Amino acid sequence: MCAKATMEEFEALLKESFEIDTPEEGSVVKGKVIAIEAGQAIIDVGYKMEGRVDLKEFANPGEQAEIAVGDEVEVYLDRVENVRGEAVISREKARREEAWDRLEKAYAAEERVDGAIFGRVKGGFTVDLGGAVAFLPGSQVDVRPVRDAGPLMGMKQPFQILKMDRRRGNIVVSRRAILEESRAEQRAEVIGNLSEGQTVDGVVKNITEYGAFVDLGGVDGLLHVTDMAWRRVNHPNEILSIGETVKVQVIKINKETHRISLGMKQLQSDPWDSVEQKFALGSVHKGRVTNITDYGAFVELEAGVEGLVHVSEMSWTKKNVHPGKIVSTSQEVDVMVLEIDTAKRRVSLGLKQTMRNPWEVFSETHPVGTEIEGEVKNITEFGLFIGLENDIDGMVHLSDLSWEQRGEDAIQNYRKGDVVKAAVTEVDVEKERISLSVKALGEDTFSDAVDGVKRGSVITTTVTAIEDGGIEVEYNGMKSFIRRSDLARDRADQRPERFQVGDHVDARVTNVDSKTRRLGLSIKAREIAEEKEAVEQYGSSDSGASLGDILGAALKGSGDK
Prior knowledge:
alpha+beta; five-stranded antiparallel sheet; 9 helices; 19% helix; Ribosomal_protein_S1-like
């Protein structure tokens, strides 16, 4: 029984000694290089254990391994013994564990770490941080896109840790953050030596549509396209090229954002200082069209001085067309100076003022009564528009189309494109209006026919037609209509059928309407007028004489004469 107890105690002590002396797998242990052969280092890690490590695990990227027999190193113990009875160890894993401890401290303290780019992967590069491998995104390599990363490979340089996860083995670093920090320090120093209004030399680094970035020696300033020259610059590459050295003036410095605004035109004299002396009101100058908009065209009078020809000042006749149909970009034109506002740097120009007013010319060459010939351009509800010379139109009103027909009826005889003749009746230059008349070229048969006929006159007409409502009569070729109620004084005699075509009938003129070209006639009015006249001459209603006696006396008196 005692012997059995002693044996159990011995086994327990032996097991305990093994647990104490043998290092735990997955830990970092110290060892000594006892030999180097076949590209491997043989390392004694104690506890009667030896292992082999490839020499490349002792080298930094791009460098040769520096290790010799007798050197003490730390290695990672994967397994105590493999099939050959050797310990499975790794210098690389040991370095990784060591590196992770060091990197976690640096990450917590937001310190920079040294590393070397040694490989390219999708989306970026791999970086050796002294045993731990990190990912460097392509966007974090430099402050600007890098086309060729070759010069950066294998070079030891500082990085900033952006993110790390030891459990997943992920580390993300940035080289750009280091450069931006250094750049910010450099910018602050350069900006501190600059002042607004200072003239400096710079190198054009980049050109965009809105301007150019100029390097002032470590800090970039923006030279906006509007500050490059007093004249209009459509694109900066018209006057600048990348790499060119230019002299610029510091216009503004923003101390907070470190933004610098630059100017080139500020180093030249302002052409607007002498605009009023060079371009007097009413003077005509030759200019070049630089830009066309919906509301007009800009014309350059000289470098840096542009004026606007408003669409309303472009043509005497083309009122509702786009300016691009009148002038074209780069075209040279003569313009008149209409207005100058030096405070707002504006010049108003006129294009049509350099040409004679076509209505004035027409008035001089076509006095009232002149016969013209033109094409019908448009037909409206109130008349015809006739195309005349110099792109102007004249209008023939409905009332001036025909002597014989109503205007509404006469206009139906015309179509667009018809060539017609007309007479000039009025030219209003101020209102740009020309009145024409077609009927003025013909004879006014109505006026000729009724010449001397006045209201109250008695005329002899010829019956041309008999209708239920009255009779149609003719006088000197002019037709008129006498209504049934005007055919006689007595109702019993107001019968159209008592007349025959060809009868001569005396009627009294009740109206002369030159607009409708009609005579108002009435037999009844004539009879009443004659009766009244007879009563006045041969009796009165109080004399006791009958109407028949009076009329008889009137007729007898007429016969005596």
